[in-house]
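worker-03 picked up job from queue 'complexes'. Input manifest follows; two sequence lines, order preserved.
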Amino acid sequence: MNDIVLRPIGVIHSPHTTPEKTPIQPAFASGIAGTIEVEPAYEEGLADLEGFSHIWVLFAFDRAGEVKLKVKPFLDDTPRGVFATRAPRRPNPIGLSLLRLVRREGRVLHVEDVDILDATPLLDIKPYSGRFDVREGARCGWLDKVDEESARRLGRRGFEG
Amino acid sequence: MNDIVLRPIGVIHSPHTTPEKTPIQPAFASGIAGTIEVEPAYEEGLADLEGFSHIWVLFAFDRAGEVKLKVKPFLDDTPRGVFATRAPRRPNPIGLSLLRLVRREGRVLHVEDVDILDATPLLDIKPYSGRFDVREGARCGWLDKVDEESARRLGRRGFEG
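worker-03 finished. Artifact:
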């Protein structure tokens, strides 16, 4: 199969400059603000996005380091297959974060719950829809064994901004 | 910013061979079965995935045609910004589908709710987690105006497999 070549369509700005201190998920980054600056050439594609309170942001893990097929997840002590985790060191380093869209100003999106490193290349934005993206009663493997209190305490990784 | 080069990690097999007859979302493809065949080099990364009932599948829209920044969504008559839709003709043609994982046999995943064309290049797999991926009370812009009955009737696009 052929390689797929992607060109970043913008950049994500956040208060996170150190991977080790960046929250591991938007759910653990509640209220942390950032902006997404989309290239002028793509501004037209942002029309109607302001109707959505939440958006999927796809981005490049551009500082993830070497690929690992088994990783020790942040919330667990047992090595897991990388595809059973959200860890960044993936064969194709694409990140997926569900952010709160606070408002749009032209080609700049003001977002919250940001768990993404500053200056990260933006690849795509998709609207979040409960109708499309929610499954009731899903089984979540090893993640189901992580208790909520530990997840909340550890997942934010000390960010106090 | 530099281009991002991705190499497919496998291939998705489905009964869908015609874009116009492929359901527009997994939510409208209930029970439609397919398989995901991961390259042998990446099999180790699938460990622990079988604990999850649902997975995010990221793939290349390799037959999407030219990019359009304004698209008429399948469920709507008004042109919308492409980033406010899930349409395939995106600047970076990455698809995102939430599939039901029925079982894993080595490097083959048996999945359901497949809304993806046969022979589509696989880019990444991530576990679905209600804790990470659900937002209560989200506003969903133009999608909120599409009634459930029309969505269900149209969204499957006549697939009867």
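worker-03 released lock.
Chain A touches chain B through 70 residues (CB under 8 Å).
Chain A has one domain: 10-155.
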